[in-house]
Specification:
Elements (H helix, E strand, L loop, with lengths): L1 H15 L17 E3 L10 E4 L9 E5 L4 E5 L6 E6 L9 E3 L6 E6 L2 E6 L5 E6 L4 E7 L12 E6 L4 E5 L6 E6 L5 E7 L4 E8 L5 E8 L6 E7 L11 E4 L7 E5 L5 E6 L6 E4 L8 E7 L9 E8 L2 E10 L4 E12 L3 E7 L2 E7 L3 E6 L5 E6 L14 E10 L5 E9 L4 E5 L2 E6 L6 E8 L2 H13 L3 H16 L2 H16 L19 E7 L3 E6 L6 E6 H4 L9 E4 L4 E6 L4 E6 L5 E6 L6 H6 L2 E7 L2 E8 L2 E8 L6 E7 L10 E3 L5 E3 L6 E8 L4 E8 L5 E8 L8 E5 L2 E9 L9 E11 L30 E9 L5 E4 L10 E6 L4 E6 L15 H5 L26 E8 L6 E7 L2 E6 L14 H40 L2 H29 L1
Antiparallel strand pairs: 1-60, 2-3, 3-4, 4-5, 6-7, 7-8, 8-9, 10-11, 11-12, 12-13, 14-15, 15-16, 16-17, 18-19, 19-20, 20-21, 22-23, 23-24, 24-25, 26-27, 27-28, 28-29, 30-31, 31-32, 32-33, 34-35, 35-36, 36-37, 38-39, 39-40, 40-41, 42-43, 43-44, 45-48, 46-47, 48-49, 49-50, 51-52, 52-53, 53-54, ...
Helix pairs in contact: 1-8, 2-3, 8-9
């Protein structure tokens, strides 16, 4: 019976043990990393909806942001279709235009005009004028041009100012107009028949008049010039409100100094319309914005938006083309707070969209009747202690059957989020404020790491204090007992029933130390927290002005502590604001006190650095005090370009490097190391200094010649080695000299002889402040230089909990928009030069030195993504030794996990826990089923043998045989053990 049952269970059990997936090792790309591809704040004058293909009604959102990033956004989900990082000019003066029914967009940045394909962002053509800066750019909309690319009109502010008509297909100059009048160029505009060049002519008493030159669009010949009498109301270009773009009737608008009157002139005519502005001394107008359509086929209507500190309203104006007059058609009501207006066209109809913090309103330019009104329940952004308000908007209006409309608006909120609202519903949100991050810190809220710090405090206290501290710690821990029990239950359930989503990490047990948050300080005065160990989602967003009542608070630094809090430091006020990284709750506001890590507080003071007046000044930061330590002054003609120190938490697993013959090279381990690079542009030289941060003494120094000072020098320090990258020329005396990029790695030892501690070996103590005479040359240096394929802008080192795992040198590659991790073993300065490694060196993993270091595809942490404008790299250890968390920020935000030595202490995601449990269960069932069968078989065999023995023996020998049988039964286990040992 047992045999039949065993056979019945064998087949289903074997089927259960078969692998459930075909792949053993799954690629972690796009699973453990995240990426916020950002553009920066979109500008009102360079953002619009436009179809990437002529004749196609589907459109994309195009923008040239405040970060000089040109890109196209999919309005359905907010994803980036393409983007280009432009350079060479002021982003606030950059321009972006697109002609009606054109498959290209045209940008103007610095002194260069460029055309890009609207569908994929490829460069079509570019045109540059040396010695001039682009002042304006327009697309020439002529009724006779119905097919093909439309030409562009560009204005360069140079000596003299130049207006060019550029071929829309090739970018070649069709004609050029130079203004030799000495006027200040203001703008260029066009109508269906003329091109207008608008300039400012200096007048008496500091005032200026506006000159309008009418140019022939075919030849560029000046046909007419007339002046607009602006009296003393216009003194500079800042006093001009608006100069019409490609409208049927371009206009010029300016206002009185006190915002009491607005005056409008139709370009090319002497007409002047004057309109009073609602004046209230208690709530004066602070900003006036005009919104007009850009299509020459659209109705000649425009909107003027007035904004005060408390309210806002708008007025709509109509232009009579036959009489060249301007009249006010209607007004939109005054509302509290702020509103964002935008103008849209559909055929010849003009629509205005108004977005407030709680509703979206659509009106026609023809009448004041409301065409559509949709409430906005929520913008869908995690903003705390503030109601986001719209600041800028562009909209797209599509008439439907009957009297309904589909309205989609891309709105920039005061929180720094860029959202799209479709008929009152938020489709997506982009955290563009993160593109302005000044500083970021990774906050550790792991209980295990906090416990380690608490135990370290107890280890450095007297027995009584340590005992009292431990009792308090246990009492405080009791309040977390219910949550701990609940968390353990959820962990057990999730082990077999994984139901957690990518963003649901609020209740997950952080046994691996992956759940960390990043808090970023942005240039627009906000704190933004992200889930650094998960999906990178924004946890909360808060303005600093709402967190503190201090006036004119200007954040200068950001610091984190071990208990999951973040302190925002204001150097001007000498105060700090402490908030919880988990929810942004304000914990305290008070005087500034430097945050001293526990380990540093135990071992000694912390050194901080400040570069001022081309001098590096170091200060010793102790609890509640700060004192100057030393000052580093570079050589004459040099200035400091790079300062970086060894990380405060940089654990060292071994004080020496074990060689292949089991001898040891002892590392020069100095926790007080700071790297300083100075550059002399005139001599094209760089000095590299490695200083002792406590005494300011020089540990190591070297010189680099023929450097290219236009490239930055990136550096990092870790354990007993440091690395830096720079760019050099082969021969600076010849213009055609080749340029190369280098990576230098230097390692310091106490002695280059194995098993020798050097001159420090006989010393009992060592002092950085008062070194002995023999301590000056206490380090021995090995260095190697590698030629790399592209420059490096930032360097850092991966960090693990105990420092046992091999390290990766993290590097930002700005030319390919990449982040790579170079294995430390590849950069070992002990790689043999000019020969193959011997057996001992092979045991160490060394291989022959080659001067060229190609970046292996497996080193790229961003995989196929493009990470733009990274300025800093942060790395913190996880709770497991194998893994390090990496967070990089700048324009983009990128985070990932790396395991330089492999995940040797973590089971992979492909490990089937259910299958393992089923295996154990099947073995248990097998033991239960088979055990009785084995016992029965052995008993039957022994019984049969005993019977035969008894039957064949004499009666006098039966007792003796029975004793022998019992002895044999006792020896059976020993026989099994002996047989097993022989099999082994």
């Amino acid at each position: 019976m047992y045999t039949m049952l065993f056979r019945a269970l064998l087949l289903p059990t074997a089927a259960l043990l078969l692998p459930t997936v075909s792949a053993i090792f799954a690629d972690d790309a796009f699973k453990v990393d995240y990426h916020h591809a950002l553009l920066g704040f979109p500008q009102q004058q360079t953002t619009f909806f436009h179809s990437p293909y002529a004749g196609n009604r589907a459109s994309l959102i195009y923008t040239l942001s405040e970060k000089n990033v040109l890109g196209a956004i999919n309005p359905k989900d907010g994803s980036i279709v393409w983007r280009q990082h432009l350079s060479g000019g002021n982003a606030s003066e950059a321009l972006l235009r697109a002609g009606d029914a054109q498959d290209t967009v045209v940008s103007a940045v610095g002194n260069e005009v460029s055309a890009w394909t609207a569908s994929d962002g490829r460069l079509v053509w570019s045109n540059t004028l040396g010695g001039g800066v682009l002042k304006d750019l327009e697309i020439l909309e002529l009724p006779q041009v119905t097919e093909g690319p439309k030409d562009a009109i560009a204005l360069w502010a140079g000596q003299p100012p130049v207006v060019r008509r550029l071929d829309g297909k090739t970018g070649e100059v069709q004609w050029q107009f130079e203004d030799d009048s000495g006027d200040t160029p203001l703008q260029v505009s066009s109508s269906a028949t003329d091109v207008f060049y608008v300039s400012l002519h200096g007048g008496m008493m500091g005032g200026a008049s506006v000159r309008v030159a009418t140019l022939d669009p075919t030849t560029g010949k000046k046909n007419n010039v007339h002046s607009v009498n602006t009296a003393s109301e216009v003194r500079s270009a800042d006093d001009i409100l608006f100069v019409g773009q490609n409208t049927a009737t371009p206009i010029l608008a300016w206002n009185h100094e006190k915002h009491t009157l607005m005056k409008i002139n139709i370009l090319g005519t002497n007409s002047l319309a004057v309109f009073p502005i609602d004046y209230d001394r208690s709530d004066m107008v602070e900003k006036i914005t005009l919104h007009a359509p850009t299509k020459i086929s659209a109705q000649s209507h425009f909107l003027v938006h007035y904004q005060t500190a408390k309210n806002n309203w708008a007025e709509v104006f109509h232009i009579d083309l036959t009489a060249s007059t301007i009249t006010q058609a209607y007004s939109l009501p005054k509302l509290a707070g702020t509103s964002a207006f935008s103008v849209s066209t559909s055929d010849a109809n003009v629509y205005f969209t108004r977005v407030t913090s709680n509703e979206m309103i659509l009106v026609s330019s023809a009448t004041h009747g409301i065409l559509g009104r949709w409430p906005i329940k929520d913008f869908g952004v995690p903003v705390i202690r503030e109601t986001p308000e719209p600041t800028r908007a562009v909209a797209e209006v599509v008439p439907r059957s009957g009297s309904s409309f589909a309205v989609r608006a891309a709105v920039l909120l005061s929180s720094g989020d860029w959202v799209t609202i479709r008929n009152g519903e938020t489709d997506w949100a982009r955290p563009e404020a993160l593109a302005d991050a000044l500083k970021a810190v990774i906050v550790t809220t792991s209980v295990s790491e906090g416990l380690a710090d608490e135990l370290e405090i107890e280890a450095h206290s007297n027995p009584v204090s340590a005992y009292v501290h431990r009792i308090k710690r246990h009492i405080d821990g009791l309040q977390h007992l219910p949550k701990w029990v609940e968390r353990q239950a959820r962990t057990l359930i999730s082990t077999f029933m994984p139901v957690e989503t990518a963003d649901d990490t609020s209740h997950k047990s952080d046994i691996f130390g992956f759940q960390k948050s990043v808090v970023a300080l942005t240039s627009n005065g906000r704190l933004i927290a992200l889930d650094a160990g998960g999906s990178g989602r924004v946890l909360w967003n808060a303005p600093i002005s709402e967190l503190t009542s201090e006036p004119n608070w200007k954040a200068t630094d950001l610091q984190s502590t071990i208990d999951g809090t973040v302190s925002v430091v204001s150097g001007a006020q000498g105060q700090q604001l402490t908030v919880s990284a988990a929810d942004g709750k304000v914990l305290s506001v008070g005087n500034y006190e430097p945050i001293i890590p526990v380990r540093d507080a135990v071992s000694g003071p912390v050194v901080t650095y400040n570069v001022a007046g081309n001098k590096l000044k170091a200060s010793l930061q102790a609890a509640h005090s700060s004192s100057p330590a030393w000052t580093f002054t570079p050589l004459p003609g040099h200035h400091i370009v790079t300062v970086t120190s060894r990380p405060p938490s940089d654990p060292v697993a071994s004080i020496g490097k074990v060689l292949g013959d089991r001898s040891v090279l002892y590392k020069y381990l100095n926790p007080n190391l700071v790297f300083v690079a100075t550059v002399n542009e005139a001599g094209n030289t760089a000095f590299i200094h490695l200083l002792d941060s406590v005494s300011g003494a020089t540990v190591y120094a070297t010189t680099q010649s023929n450097i290219d000072a236009t490239y930055s020098i990136a550096a990092t320090v870790s354990e007993n080695w440091f690395a830096y990258s720079l760019t050099v020329h082969s021969d600076l005396t010849t213009p055609s000299s080749s340029k190369g990029h280098q990576l230098v790695v230097t390692e310091l030892f106490e002695s280059l002889l194995p098993d020798d501690r050097g001159i420090l070996g006989s010393n009992d103590n060592y002092s950085s402040i008062q070194p002995s005479p023999v301590q000056g040359g206490s380090s021995y240096v090995l260095s190697q230089t590698y030629h790399i394929p592209e420059p490096i802008s930032q360097l850092s080192v991966s960090q693990t909990k105990q420092g046992i795992t091999s390290k990766h040198l993290l590097a930002v590659l700005p030319e390919t928009n990449s982040l790579i991790g170079i294995p430390r073993t590849v950069l070992d300065p002990r790689r043999p030069v000019g020969r193959e490694p011997n057996k001992d060196e092979q045991l160490e993993g060394l291989f022959r030195y080659t001067p060229n270091l190609e970046f292996h595809p497996q080193w790229y942490l961003n995989h196929k993504r493009e990470v733009f404008g990274l300025k800093n790299i942060l790395s913190v250890p996880a709770a497991v030794e194998s893994t390090s968390l990496v967070f990089a920020y700048g324009l983009d935000v990128f985070g990932t996990r790396i395991a330089p030595s492999g995940t040797f202490d973590v089971l992979g995601k492909e490990f089937n826990k259910i299958q393992m449990s089923a295996t154990v269960l099947a073995l248990a069932v097998g033991v239960v089923v088979v055990a009785p069968l084995v016992s029965s078989a052995v008993g039957s065999y022994i019984g049969l043998t005993s019977t035969n023995i008894f039957l064949g023996a004499k009666e006098t020998d039966q007792r003796t045989l029975a004793v022998r049988v019992d002895s044999d039964l006792e020896m059976i286990p020993n026989l099994f053990l002996h047989s097993a040992s022989r099999r082994e």
